Sequence to fold (248 residues):
Amino acid sequence: MRRKFFVGGNWKCNGTSDEVNKIVSTLNAGQIPAADIVEVVVSPPFVFIPCVKIGLKPEFQVAAQNCWVKKGGAFTGEISAEMLANLSIPWVIIGHSERRALLNETNEFVGEKVAYALSQGLKVIACVGETLEEREAGTTMQVVAAQTKAIADKISSWDNVVLAYEPVWAIGTGKVATPAQAQEVHAELRKWLETNTKPEVAASTRIIYGGSVNGSNCKELGGQQDVDGFLVGGASLKPEFIDINQGC
Ligand SMILES: O=C(CO)COP(=O)(O)O
Fold:
């Protein structure tokens, strides 16, 4: 089964309204491949989502960078999955390593969040990845399998999930995983899905790579058999993001 390439741009906690307008203009002026070849999703900070959604041409979809774990209510400062669905925001990133590390989001909490977001009709970019210490200790696969299992345990369908492998040591460091390193983990993750879910899930679920992806390294990474796209951080704020989409 052919998996449609997926490129996400995670803007993280960056941007002023002027900068956001500039990025929107740059993206609108760029050419990206047809929607049946690549799915492109940009993820601005919450406050900018409505203007980005209105301003961007329809070839681009939008994603939130997080949502609350359950139904909304008395949770000051949180944004619920229902709110995102209500505003027709189709995607949400869940379990980014920055939230796992800085906000103590556990594997179980991430799994619950993914399940709740899916139950509200959102599509999820679910992130997994090991730290440098874990890689050096030879535990990469155990770590990403445990993170994936915590999600698999809570959901009944992977149809609306994209799995993002983002090694923590490659995020924002300029130290990109080699194509072989990325392919090795992606293939293992696919094997994990095959063994622990269903072969169809393993064949159809997109596994994308994130960590210092840019216009120069995207082609070789994207050429790996089990790399179905990218989750781009820093370079998604630059015109280079268009090149990353064209290069696939
Ligand atoms: O965290 C990332 C995407 O979610 C990757 O960030 P960088 O591309 O800046 O390394």
Q: What stands out?
A: The chain has one domain: 5-246. Residues 5-246 form a domain with the TIM Barrel fold (CATH 3.20.20.70). Residues 10, 96, 166, 171-172, 210-213, 231-235 surround 1,3-dihydroxyacetonephosphate (CB under 6 Å). The radius of gyration is 17 Å.
